[in-house]
Specification:
The protein has about 425 residues and is α/β, with parallel strands linked by helices. The chain is built from 17 helices and 15 strands. The protein folds into two domains: about 220 residues, Rossmann fold; about 160 residues, NAD(P)-binding Rossmann-like Domain (Rossmann fold), CATH 3.40.50.720. The strands form two sheets. The protein has an eight-stranded mixed sheet with strand order 9-8-7-10-11-14-13-12, sandwiched between helices. Strands 3-2-1-4-5-6-15 form a seven-stranded parallel sheet, with helices on both faces. Helix 2 packs parallel to helix 3. The longest helix is centred in the middle third of the chain and has 24 residues. The N and C termini lie far apart (about 70 Å).
């Protein structure tokens, strides 16, 4: 069969979910209309490793309307919405994903979508790109896209090591992606995941955000907005200084571990919360990860030092430490907003996935011109997505006069 999902009978509910998402994604619906009229992806085979959510469904349905043949696998073992996966299968998308995959299942599903010999690949995290480069180098890939910071970092490393085999557009680097998806989307959805898993009160608690990139900024700002006393842990002096100037306390993790009550990782790096940090934590501390991979919290080390472990409620596990204190790990250290909640709101994914769709078209239209390297999203696409979003929100913006445009081009006029 051209799919492997949990239950095809869930399709009706999944279709309702997709309809709800598409209602809140006006920019992508405008892009869909354009691509459908142009049929600019007719016959193009696309394999994608993305979170299988209602918003992703809106994206792959758009690609299909543009004429593409799409195969989809999940980019996280816990993020797939099974009803959405079923609805996509009924729409003719080849889906290999279900919530609760093992690591073996995860890579097996990546292998399945590559059997369709894609022309273009789309990824969220870099696992698909890495798998192709390590095990499927015979595939003739025109190019690819990458959705998230972690994946772009991996691809840049591949480019610098001169092993990259095809051009990739870093969708994550689009202004309309990282300023909104990373900051506003994750800022809201990570807290949504924490609240669904715990139902704790945020106000009055000491929250520690590890990492002050765009994701960390969004989480820290929204935690403060809900009444938390927020500490930022950051290794970059520039970002640490920015956090201080934004009004946050800044300190190393060794000190923050002793005072925090809620911990959220957002670095893209490994073991930023170590077992040594965990041993210093207060009784009742909550640990959550907002980074793409489940490496930011030393889950293995936590399991080694725990006297006992028990599940309290979905996505909330209690670990008793040797000193008798208990800490609570959310979603086994995986991406909390997608494992314990539904990911970003559709409105913000509207921007990211409009960039994705238009970037795929750009790759195909320029397939004979692109060099083998990592590209940013072309500015004209970035600005177009912003304009489509504003139009969908019913907002008009100022227009420069011809005189103003000419003034901005010259260098002679002074005081």
């Amino acid at each position: 069969m051209d799919y492997k999902i949990k239950d095809i009978k869930l399709a009706e509910q999944g279709r309702k979910q997709i309809e709800w998402a598409e209602m809140h994604m006006p920019a992508l619906m405008s892009v869909r209309k354009e691509l459908k009229e142009r049929q600019s992806l007719k016959g193009v085979r696309i394999s994608a490793v993305l979170h299988v959510t209602k918003e992703t469904a809106a994206l792959v349905r758009t690609l299909k309307e543009a004429g593409a043949e799409v195969a989809l696998a999940g980019s996280n073992p816990l993020s797939t919405q099974d009803d959405v996966a079923a609805a996509l299968v009924e729409d003719g998308i080849k889906v290999f994903a279900w919530k609760g995959e093992s690591e073996e299942d995860y890579y097996s599903n990546i292998k399945e979508i590559l059997k369709y010999e894609p022309n273009i690949v789309m990824d969220d995290g870099g696992d698909l790109h890495a798998y192709i480069h390590e095990k499927c180098q015979s595939l003739k890939i025109i190019g690819g896209t990458e959705e998230t910071t972690t994946g772009v970092i991996r691809l840049k490393a591949m480019e610098e090591s001169k092993v990259l085999k095809y051009p990739v557009i870093a969708v994550n680097n689009a202004f309309t992606k990282y300023l909104f998806d990373n900051r506003i989307g994750t800022g809201q959805s990570a807290i949504d995941g924490i609240l669904r898993a715990t139902n704790i009160l945020i106000a009055g608690k000491v929250a520690v955000v590890i990492g002050y990139g765009w994701v960390g900024r969004g989480i820290a700002t929204r935690l403060r907005g809900m009444g938390a006393r927020v500490i930022v842990v950051e290794a970059s002096p520039l970002r640490a200084l920015e956090a201080v100037m934004d009004g946050f306390d800044v300190m190393p993790m060794s000190k923050a571990a002793e005072v925090g009550e809620i911990f959220v990782t957002a670095t893209g790096n490994i073991n930023v919360i170590s077992k040594e940090h965990i041993l210093k934590m207060k009784n009742g501390a909550v640990l959550a990860n907002a980074g793409h991979f489940n490496v930011e919290i030393d889950v293995k080390g936590l399991k080694e030092i725990a006297k006992s472990v028990r599940n309290i409620r979905p996505y909330l596990d209690e670990y008793e430490l040797p000193n008798g204190n208990k800490v609570y790990l959310l979603a086994d250290g995986r991406l909390v907003n997608l494992a314990a909640a539904e990911g970003h709101p559709s409105e913000v994914m509207d921007l990211s996935f409009s960039n994705q769709a238009l970037s795929v078209e750009y790759i195909y239209n320029n397939r004979d011109k692109l060099e083998i390297k990592v590209y940013n999203v072309p500015q004209e696409i970035d600005e177009k997505v912003a304009l489509l979003k504003l139009k969908g929100m019913g907002i008009e913006i100022e227009q420069l006069t011809e005189e103003q445009k000419e003034y901005m081009k010259q260098w002679k006029y002074g005081t």
